[in-house]
């Protein structure tokens, strides 16, 4: 914003009115902001891999993943009623999802066996991630419903997100960019090998 000198000259005691400039006039004009372009994130933002009908388990990525190879689907561990898979759009390196095989949306609808195995896989995932990646802590949680932030709300999944000191520095907060220093396929292999 710039000041209008005429208003100040006419009445020296009056605060000058700011001039609001349209940001569109400055598109492409160099400034002091550094930008890290991440066009690959548009697939996630645009919902490229989201099912058109979230209630159709044939379209659900968490239902179709176990039908593929572990390497192709990024599955780290298969249990009897639940499994662990790497998140395609990780918040941090090593971000795992623990999913029941059954297409179920709400935590209260899980069977006793599903609750127990989701919990046990989550505990084992934490141990494996600690052994392989040495994080300082974890975020664990389920987003229940689209309004709560669930990207695929129709199929419950527990997030296991490793955290390191400084991983929420200026880059993701100000730059809205996340650096993931290891390939998903390499992370899957290391975690699967450590799972035992």
Automatic annotation (TrEMBL):
Basic and acidic residues biased stretches: 1-14
InterPro entries per record: AP-4-A_phosphorylase, FHIT, HIT-like, HIT-like_sf
Binding, substrate: 87, 159
Keywords carried by this UniProt record: Hydrolase, Nucleotide-binding
Endpoints of the signal sequence: none
Motif (Histidine triad motif): 155-159
Pfam families (UniProt xref): HIT (PF01230)
Keyword check for Repressor: no
Membrane spanning stretches: none
Source species, domain of life: Bacteria
Positions of the UniProt region annotated as Disordered: 1-27
Residue numbers annotated as active site: 157 (tele-amp-histidine intermediate)
GO MF terms held by the record: hydrolase activity; nucleotide binding
Domain HIT: 61-170
Keyword Isomerase applies: no
PANTHER family listed in its UniProt record: AP-4-A PHOSPHORYLASE (PTHR42997:SF1), HIT FAMILY HYDROLASE (PTHR42997)
Name assigned to this protein: HIT family hydrolase
């Amino acid at each position: 914003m710039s000041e209008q000198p005429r208003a100040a000259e006419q009445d020296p005691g009056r605060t000058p009115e700011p001039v609001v400039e349209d940001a569109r006039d400055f598109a492409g004009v160099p400034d002091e902001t550094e930008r890290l372009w991440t066009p690959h994130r548009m697939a996630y933002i645009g919902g490229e891999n989201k099912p058109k009908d979230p209630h159709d388990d044939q379209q659900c990525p968490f239902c179709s993943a176990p039908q593929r190879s572990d390497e192709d689907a990024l599955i780290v561990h298969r249990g009897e009623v639940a499994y662990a898979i790497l998140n395609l759009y990780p918040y941090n390196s090593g971000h795992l999802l623990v999913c029941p095989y059954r297409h179920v949306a709400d935590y209260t609808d899980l069977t006793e066996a599903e609750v127990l195995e989701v919990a046990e896989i989550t505990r084992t995932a934490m141990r494996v991630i600690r052994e392989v990646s040495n994080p300082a802590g974890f975020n664990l949680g389920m987003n229940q419903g689209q309004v709560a932030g669930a990207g695929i709300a129709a199929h419950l999944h527990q997030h296991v997100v490793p955290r390191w000191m400084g991983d929420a520095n200026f880059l993701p907060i100000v730059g809205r960019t996340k650096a993931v220093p290891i390939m998903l396929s390499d992370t899957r292999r290391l975690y699967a090998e450590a799972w035992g």
